[in-house]
Design a protein that fits this description.
single chain; alpha/beta; 7-stranded mixed beta sheet; 9 helices; globular
C-alpha cells in the first residue's frame, strides 16, 4: 500500500498531498505516539540551533501542523509557515489562534521547491520532516539557501539512517511493523505511516544532506544525530 505514494514526479507529489490530507487531524497525536513524545524535544533543539530571538524573521517550509513555526514565534521571531497541504495549514492556523499568536505568525500555501519569497528574505529557514517528501530534496535545500539572508541559519530536522547496522535494522523494523499499525488504528490506513520507511529508501539522510549543503557553499554544515542517528538535524549558515 505504501509504495503508491512513491511514484516519481508530479504524480508522486499529488499522492503525498493526499496522504497528508488523510492524516492531518491525527498528525500530532501519532507523532506523540510513534516518537514517545520525543519529537517535541527534537523540535526544541531545532529552535535553539536556529537562534530564535526577538527581531529576527523566519520561514518554516513544509510546516505541517505548525509546531516549529509556533516555537519560533514564541521565541519572538516574526515567522511564516509554508506548506502545500491546505488541511495541514488549517490545523496549524487553528493552533496559532488558540495560542493567541496571530500577529507573530502567518501560514501560507506554497511549494517548498519553488518558494514565492525573494532572495535574502529571512534570518532563519527551517524544515521539519519535509525534505524526504519532496520530489527533489536538493531543490528544497537550494530554495532554503536562496531565501535565507547572508549569515542566516538553515536547520533541517528529519528521519535519519543510523550508522550502526544493528541499530539501523532495529529502527527499520520498528518503522516497518509498529508505525503502520498506528496509522491503521488512528487513521484507518496503514499506508498513511508505512510511507515513512518507503520514503527513506531513496533519501540519503543526514550524511547526504550535509554533503549537498557543502556542495552548495553553505558554511558550517554539520550533523546533530539524535538517538544514535534515528533522527538527525542538519545545520548550516548561508555565506
Amino acid at each position: 500500500m505504501a509504495q503508491q505514494f512513491f511514484i516519481q514526479g508530479e504524480q508522486r507529489a499529488e499522492k503525498v498531498k493526499q496522504l497528508f490530507t488523510i492524516i492531518a487531524r491525527r498528525y500530532d497525536l501519532i507523532n506523540d505516539l510513534q516518537s514517545f513524545g520525543l519529537h517535541r524535544y527534537w523540535k526544541r533543539r531545532v529552535i535553539q540551533l536556529a537562534g530564535a530571538q526577538a527581531g529576527k524573521t523566519a520561514l518554516d517550509v513544509c510546516c505541517g501542523t505548525g509546531d516549529l513555526a509556533l516555537g519560533l514565534a514564541r521565541g519572538g521571531v516574526q515567522t511564516v509557515g509554508l506548506d502545500f497541504n491546505e488541511e495541514m495549514l488549517r490545523v496549524a492556523a487553528s493552533k496559532a489562534q488558540k495560542a493567541k499568536m496571530g500577529k507573530a505568525i502567518q501560514f501560507v500555501h506554497g511549494d517548498a521547491e519553488a518558494v514565492h519569497f525573494p532572495d535574502n528574505s529571512f534570518d532563519i529557514v527551517t524544515v521539519g520532516y519535509g525534505l524526504r517528501n519532496l520530489t527533489c530534496w536538493e531543490t528544497g535545500v537550494r530554495e532554503m539557501q536562496r531565501v535565507a539572508k547572508p549569515g542566516g541559519r538553515l536547520v533541517a530536522l528529519e528521519f535519519g539512517k543510523p550508522a550502526n547496522p544493528v541499530w539501523r535494522g532495529l529502527y527499520f523494523a520498528y518503522l516497518r511493523l509498529f508505525v503502520p499499525l498506528l496509522g491503521r488504528v488512528f487513521c484507518g490506513n496503514a499506508g498513511a505511516y508505512a510511507y515513512i520507511l518507503e520514503s527513506l529508501k531513496n533519501y540519503p539522510a543526514q550524511e547526504g544532506v550535509a554533503a549537498k549543503m557543502r556542495d552548495f557553499g553553505i558554511n558550517d554544515a554539520r550533523i546533530i544525530n539524535l538517538l544514535g542517528g534515528v533522527m538527525s538535524i542538519n545545520y548550516g549558515v548561508k555565506g
